[in-house]
Design a protein that fits this description.
Elements (H helix, E strand, L loop, with lengths): L4 E4 L9 H14 L6 H8 L4 H12 L7 H16 L6 H11 L3 E5 L3 H11 L10 E3 L11 H10 L6 E5 L2 H9 L3 E5 L13 E3 L5 H5 L1
Parallel strand pairs: 1-2, 1-4, 2-3, 4-5, 5-6
Helix pairs in contact: 1-2, 1-4, 4-6
Length: 214
């Protein structure tokens, strides 16, 4: 086997959540007096933990987001997930293929544990990830682009970093994987390939991934 562990990002890689959450985020920030387009949200926040939203708004405006921001934002996102969320096309087949080949995999996401589980349950992917194979930026001190989350997931799974492959769709995630010393495969469905600096390889459809990692 080429790798002993495949680490999947969640949003935009396993579940097609980025269009939903970024539309909601742009609208909510605009509502709070921080005009943000959908394109702005994708550019600035794709693949990041929620603390990055707080940090960038404070840096740019000198104002803090309200105390209830996280709860309101996540509530709106979870409501939309229940109505609209779908798995990324072809990802279930990729996971089934890894199972058949005996290649272990896990999920390591900037999202909260609650968000990851809500998304995986809604899309029918939850049963493929037992509780010991779900990792969140909440588990570590620093989120992406720091390597901490990927290194923590590899450590818990008992696999050296150099034997891990990461599947990511954001520049922040690619940077984190490179910093962790892992090969990283950039999914370009929403992010132009030229922004995935350092990626081991790029792919635009999930059915292209198995040939790269197995």
């Amino acid at each position: 086997m080429r790798y002993d562990l495949v680490i999947f990002d969640n949003d935009g890689v396993l579940v097609d959540s980025e269009p939903i959450s970024n539309r909601i985020l742009a609208a909510y920030l605009t509502e709070l007096g921080h005009p943000t387009t959908y394109e702005d949200s994708i550019r600035d926040y794709l693949g990041s933990a929620v603390h990055r939203i707080h940090d960038l708004i404070l840096e740019r405006s000198g104002k803090r987001l309200p105390e209830e921001f996280d709860a309101v934002f996540h509530g709106r996102v979870f409501d939309a997930f229940q109505r609209d969320l779908l798995p990324v096309p072809g990802v279930d087949e990729v996971l089934r293929g890894l199972d058949a080949e005996g290649v272990p995999y896990c999920v390591a996401s900037s999202g909260s544990h609650e968000r990851i589980r809500v998304a995986l349950r809604r899309t029918g992917l939850y049963d493929r990830f037992d509780e010991k194979r779900i990792f969140s930026s909440q588990d570590v001190g620093r989120g992406k682009p720091a390597p901490d989350l990927f290194l923590y997931a590899a450590e818990v799974m008992g696999v050296p970093a150099e034997r891990c492959a990461v599947v990511e769709d954001s520049p922040l995630g690619v940077r984190a994987a490179v910093a962790a010393g892992m090969d990283v495969y950039g999914y370009t469905a929403m992010t132009p390939g030229e922004k995935m600096t350092g990626a081991t390889a790029l792919f635009s459809r999930m059915d292209e991934l198995p040939a790269l990692i197995v």
